[in-house]
Amino acid sequence: MRAFGLHLLGSATALLVVFGVLYFAWYRWPGWYLAGAARVAPVVVAVDLALGPLITFLIASPRKALRALARDVSVVVAVQLLALGYGAVTLWQGRPLYYTFSVNCLEMVQASELTPNEIAAARQQNPGFVPHWYSLPRWIWVPLPENGEEAAKIVRGTLFGGTDVIQMPRYYRPWHAGLPSLATQLRTVDKAQGFSPREKQLLKQRMARLGMAADQPVTLTMLGRERPLLAVFDRASLRIRVILRAD
User: Fold this and answer.
1) Distance CA 246, CA 205 (A)
2) What pTM was estimated for this model as a whole?
3) What distance in Å separates the CA atoms of residue 31 and residue 37, rounded to the nearest whole number?
4) pLDDT for 108 beyond 90
5) Between 226 and 56, whose confidence is greater?
6) How far apart are CA 164 and CA 154, in angstroms?
7) Rounded Cα gap, residues 141 and 106, in angstroms
8) Which of the four pLDDT bands, split at 50, 70 and 90, describes residue 2?
9) Where are the domains of the chain?
10) Closest listed residue to residue 198, CA positions, set 185, 210, 209, 189
11) Where are the beta strands (DSSP E) in the chain?
């Protein structure tokens, strides 16, 4: 029991430190949900917090030589560290870097979506928006290029699986500069894209409980790897009041 308790305490501490840093720096709402991090975290938690200490409980014995016990526990810890490393690297590569408004919706951009070529181009053309390893999530506006031919090329490429404009930091602009355009795209819940009738009804109920009028054009769909979310804006200031799940 003592070996189990010590192993559990050590595993929990390591897990809290790694996941705590990632969560509070990059994955706070809505990042954790939109990035689908909930599919990675349970695997790491199961291995590090459950299986590791449990195996130690099974193999530890007062009658076992200390050297043999240390060897066995070292193997278990090595497997745990591999699992923790896998989870940490996966979450690091998929960390949210930008929440963008482009055309008619909000969308998250993860670190893994930015290619070295696009980052290099942004470093030359738009250095203020180049991501660094320490960059925290930023809200930005990403308009299509003013050059019609270039804009059409990006749109055509996106339709066939190419790089979208939100994955091109050289086109990034300050969030406040896009607010006039954003205001023209606000919709009522009934006209929000990406939600089923049942989900829209649920969103209306949640807005009503928060004292918000669902029949006013104050919402935008927010996209990521999981089901879309609904961002509700203050009509006057264009600040986001709340981001709601539809499930």
Assistant:
1) 10
2) 0.88
3) 8
4) yes
5) 226
6) 7
7) 9
8) confident
9) 2-93, 100-180, 186-247
10) 189
11) 96-102, 105-110, 138-141, 173-174, 219-223, 229-233, 240-244
